[in-house]
């Protein structure tokens, strides 16, 4: 334990460099292009987060509404055929 505390700073830096190089031997990862595109500046990052939230909300809203409509088909107000309830007596009530 004492040896770790006293370890030469150059040795620690070399170990850190070796671990970093070992993780990037296979080349660029799948998210490197995305990271380089969206993390260019703070404005770009915040804009991407806001745009992603809006897109997610629209897609999520449409999916949940379509599930709700399919599970409750025929029970909702906009599914009712109001022409079945129209009677001829409605026109004569104006007197």
TrEMBL record:
Major subcellular location class: mitochondrion
GO CC annotation terms, alphabetical: mitochondrial inner membrane; respiratory chain complex III
Sorted UniProt keywords: Electron transport, Membrane, Mitochondrion, Mitochondrion inner membrane, Respiratory chain, Transmembrane, Transmembrane helix, Transport
GO biological process: mitochondrial electron transport, ubiquinol to cytochrome c
Family: Belongs to the UQCR10/QCR9 family.
Gene3D superfamilies documented for this protein: Cytochrome b-c1 complex subunit 9
Compartment(s) where it occurs, according to its Swiss-Prot or TrEMBL record: Mitochondrion inner membrane
Record-given protein name: Cytochrome b-c1 complex subunit 9
Highest taxon of source: Eukaryota
Species this chain originates from: Aphanomyces invadans
């Amino acid at each position: 334990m004492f040896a770790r505390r006293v370890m030469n700073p150059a040795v620690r830096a070399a170990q850190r460099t070796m671990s970093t190089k070992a993780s990037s031997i296979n080349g660029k990862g799948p998210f490197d292009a995305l990271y380089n595109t969206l993390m260019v500046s703070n404005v770009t990052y915040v804009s991407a987060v806001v745009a992603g939230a809006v897109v997610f909300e629209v897609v999520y809203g449409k999916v949940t509404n379509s599930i709700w409509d399919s599970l409750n088909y025929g029970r909702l107000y906009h599914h009712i055929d109001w022409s079945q309830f129209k009677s001829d007596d409605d026109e004569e009530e104006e007197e």
